[in-house]
Write a structure and sequence with these properties.
By secondary structure, the chain is of the alpha/beta class. The chain has two domains: 2-122 and 271-283, 3-Layer(aba) Sandwich (Rossmann fold), CATH 3.40.50.10330; 130-263, Sandwich (Tumour Suppressor Smad4), CATH 2.60.200. 19% of the residues lie in helices and 37% in strands. The protein has a six-stranded parallel beta sheet with strand order 3-2-1-4-5-6, sandwiched between helices. α1 (15-28) runs parallel beside α4 (110-118). The longest helix has 14 residues, at 15-28. The chain is globular, with a radius of gyration of 20 Å.
Length: 292
């Protein structure tokens, strides 16, 4: 079995987990295909063989890769998804970071999780993505977001106005620092920190969450994901920022953007005893009384 391995950092804190992971792959007889930048780090710091197979593009996932593993936090998981794209290759995140909603297999349970993958004791949980389109085509073919697309002000303390329409009908003009359009997966990201709701995976919705709105009666809104969202910004400045999962580009005043559901989904590996509700309850410390 060919297994893609993605990570962004190799440090003295996590190098042991890389070694453990690669050792388990060797015991299973699985062939690691390591992302090219990560391979260079592992060759230098962990003694990985120079002859180890590598990948450097999403094109490499179109044939010959059976599973993809990310080792890191949620940001690493999202970067891995950019390689996986529409290949249908299942993804599993090993959390060596902090919170870990997406990369939710604790590093202490790495070997146990790998054993369950080998025994095929897992399900595929499909996660939707969103696409942004504009006349300027700012992101090219990388215009897909796993978590969220954000419009926000740049280099100013003044509010901006984000005009939004839903399914061709005017919705609202948000006076705020910006607006987030999130997927169910992204509901536990930036949207959550701005007061947005938590949405369980599988819900066919998008979330519109204003960032520090001027009108306090303007609240986050959950909308059907089959309806396109059109946005444009105006304000005192000439340029603003559009971000896809944290990667930003400047956009011009009154430039129109169309946001819609992507035409493919990501298969995330989930285990029976580690579902979304368990993850939320654990990470959010629900049901725990700190007074005890």
């Amino acid at each position: 079995m060919n297994v893609a391995v993605f990570g962004r950092k190799v440090t003295k804190e996590n190098i042991g987990y890389y070694n453990e992971f690669l050792s388990v792959l060797q015991d299973f007889g699985w062939n690691p295909i390591v992302e090219s930048n990560l391979k260079s780090l592992l060759v230098k710091k962990a003694g990985l063989s120079e002859s180890t197979d590598e990948f450097s593009s999403h094109e490499d996932f179109k044939s010959g890769i059976d599973l993809s593993f990310s080792i890191g936090g949620d940001g690493t998981f999202i970067e891995n998804v950019k390689f996986v794209r529409d290949s249908n290759v299942p993804v599993l995140g090993i959390n060596t970071g902090r919170l870990g909603f997406l990369a939710n297999v604790p590093k202490e349970h790495l070997e146990e999780a790998m054993g369950m993958v080998k025994a095929k004791k897992f399900d595929h949980q499909k996660r939707s993505l969103i696409r942004v389109e504009s006349e300027a085509n700012h992101f090219g073919e990388d215009n897909i977001a796993f978590n969220e697309i954000t419009l926000q002000k740049k280099d100013t303390s003044s509010m901006i106005t984000v005009h939004a329409s839903l399914g061709g009908k005017y919705l609202n003009s948000y006076w705020a620092d910006g607006l987030i359009v999130a997927t169910p997966s992204g509901s536990t990201g930036y949207s959550l920190s701005c007061g947005g709701p938590i949405i369980t995976p599988g819900c066919q919705v998008h979330i519109l969450t204003p960032i520090a709105p001027h009108n306090l009666n303007v609240r986050p809104m959950v909308v059907p994901d089959h309806m396109s969202i059109k946005l444009s910004i105006e304000g005192r400045n000439r340029t603003y920022l559009m971000s896809i999962d944290g990667n930003s580009v400047p956009i011009k005043n009154e430039e129109e953007l169309t946001i819609s559901k992507a035409n493919y989904m990501i298969n995330v590996i989930k285990f029976e005893d580690n579902n979304f509700l368990d993850t939320i309850r654990t990470k959010m410390l629900w049901g725990i009384d700190k007074r005890n």
